[in-house]
Design goal:
The strands form 2 sheets. Strands 1-2 form a two-stranded antiparallel sheet. A two-stranded antiparallel ribbon has the order 3-4. The chain is mainly α and 305 residues long. It folds into 2 domains: 1-33 and 270-305; 72-242, f41 fragment of flagellin, N-terminal domain, CATH 1.20.1330. Helix 2 runs antiparallel to helix 6 (215-268). It contains 7 helices and 4 strands, in the order ααααββββααα. It has helices at residues 5-32, 43-98, 100-103, 107-125, 192-205, 215-268, 272-297, and strands at residues 146-149, 154-157, 165-169, 172-175. 66% of the residues lie in helices and 6% in strands. The longest helix has 56 residues, at 43-98. It comes from Yersinia enterocolitica. One of its GO terms (molecular function) is structural molecule activity. Keywords: Bacterial flagellum, Cell projection, Cilium, Flagellum, Secreted. Residues 10-139 form the Flagellin N-terminal domain.
């Protein structure tokens, strides 16, 4: 069958166009490292990749949440440890005050030292996280939780007991805060123990008040300080348990990330060496086709005479 010049040209152009499309596809695969760069190339795998991308996004968010929560819980643990240490020192000062006749230290000095420890505890209760939010205000974390009224010599709690939950895994949430107000209260977050400690310290500093009038208060506050210390210890243990669980979830999320990466490689991954070789062969094929077409297109009847 005889092929006309026009037909031959169309055939060569179509062939070169097809070769160029193959080259462009291979070149895109080489650049992106992905077998599929358009949905039309493999619709089924593209849908699976969309689902996989959603899974990867969720895992990344879980990892971010876990990291932030671990940091927040660590800050709270450090503050609780600080409060616990100050409570132990405060209790020692109260015991020394109970035996002040033997210690030789004036009650006024002990009272001031107890007052300074209370201020340190209050500072820890009003601590903030790295985002400037109060750690121990519940969900009212823009409100300073503990305030002292000089006139009435009382502390008040301005936060709430609500928990702040964070999503750390598929269907898994974890509380990111603790309620410390109850540890210093005998009623509904009235911080009565903290108030009574401050009032006792004020009495000790006031030389016009006879020690005998608040001697029983000292005994009561020794027991109260011990109770608060026990509460702090339980809360520190709870925070430690949460951090351990977060560490376990962190490992799970790392494993999920590896699995997702392997699935992605199975779906759209390429053999880099093989693609580069195909790319070189495709380019060579295009060059050869252009060269052949150029030579043939220059032929005429005179070439056969």
């Amino acid at each position: 069958m005889r092929i006309s010049d026009a037909g031959f040209s169309r055939m060569m152009i179509n062939s070169m166009s097809h070769s160029y499309n193959d080259y462009a596809k291979l070149n895109q695969q080489n650049i992106t490292g992905k077998r599929i760069n358009q949905i039309s190339e493999d619709p089924v795998a593209s849908i699976q990749m969309t689902q996989l991308d959603n899974s990867k996004s969720s895992v990344n968010q879980y990892k971010t949440n876990v990291g932030r929560l671990k940091g927040k819980l660590k800050i709270q643990e450090d503050r609780l440890t600080s409060i616990d240490n100050q409570l132990l020192s405060l209790r020692d000062k109260l015991i020394e005050s109970k035996n002040h006749n033997n210690s030789g230290t004036p009650l006024a000095i002990l009272g001031r030292e107890i007052g300074m420890l209370i201020e340190g505890i209050t500072d820890d209760l009003n601590a903030k996280d790295v985002d400037g939010k109060y750690l121990f205000s519940g969900t009212r974390n823009s409100t300073k939780p503990v305030e002292y009224d000089t006139a009435s010599q009382t502390y008040s709690y301005n936060g709430n007991n609500d928990s702040i939950d964070t999503v750390v895994g598929n269907g898994i949430t974890m509380q990111g805060n603790v309620d410390l107000s109850a540890a210093f209260s005998t009623g509904s977050n009235n911080l009565e123990i903290l108030t009574e400690l401050r009032q006792l310290a004020n009495k000790m500093v006031d030389s016009t008040i006879a020690p005998a009038s608040y001697n029983q208060d000292i005994s009561t506050m020794i027991g109260a300080a011990q109770t608060v210390t026990s509460n702090m210890g339980s809360t520190v243990t709870e925070l430690g348990a949460r951090q351990n669980r977060l560490g376990h979830l962190e490992d799970i999320n790392e494993d999920l990330e590896i699995v997702n990466s392997q699935l992605e490689d199975d779906l759209i991954g390429i053999d880099v060496v093989a693609v580069k070789m195909e790319l070189e062969n495709s380019l060579l094929s295009i060059k050869t086709s252009f060269s052949t077409y150029a030579k043939i297109s220059q032929l005429s009847l005179f070439n056969y005479i």
